[in-house]
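> run fold Class I SAM-dependent methyltransferase
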Amino acid sequence: MSTTELPAGHAELMDGVYRWQRHIYDLTRKYYLLGRDRLIEGLDVPAGGTVLELGCGTGRNIILAARRYPEARFFGLDISSEMLETASAAIAREGLSARVKLAKGDATDFDAAALFGLASFDGIFVSYSLSMIPGWEKTVTAALAALSPKGSLHIVDFGQQEGLPRWFRSLLRGWLRKFHVEPRANLREVLDSESQRTGTTFRFRTLYRGYAWLAVLGSHRD
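> ok
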């Protein structure tokens, strides 16, 4: 499919990309979506806490997080109906439907109260989705606005592969473009700016020689 033949809307685009891929997504992505499990381990959800995943995809991450934090409630948002169908089935198979609620929505502009009946969350995480979202900076702003005062936003995504060979970077970028993925070169700067704007703490780590970046925007500074 050429660029001019792609669906006009982002939701239609994502449904088109993942209509068939969703069935093998988790089998293939585990080899190169690195750092996701480290993000989940770092959520540190309190008992009875609430956690939202933006761009929940097939439900892989939200299922692992729900297992890791059995006393918390989880909520997932995705713009793709195809992915939500797969995620819902996976969550039901795991017997987690009572603790995990999904909704279709735009991560750059969502109404948490209307979708989930909650105004804020103790934790929000975004795993390898910012690199696929047009206007991704708005997702960061929206996520911070939906955090409780002591909540934290966790992000993992492709870095700039700054410590890896140039040939590897070139091959990876070419592969990612096939799936409309673009690593965000200014991710750290945007997150730092948002941290300053909202008065929240900010931690940033490079993983695997810059293959991936992991960030946490935490509670408000004293």
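The chain has one domain: 3-220.
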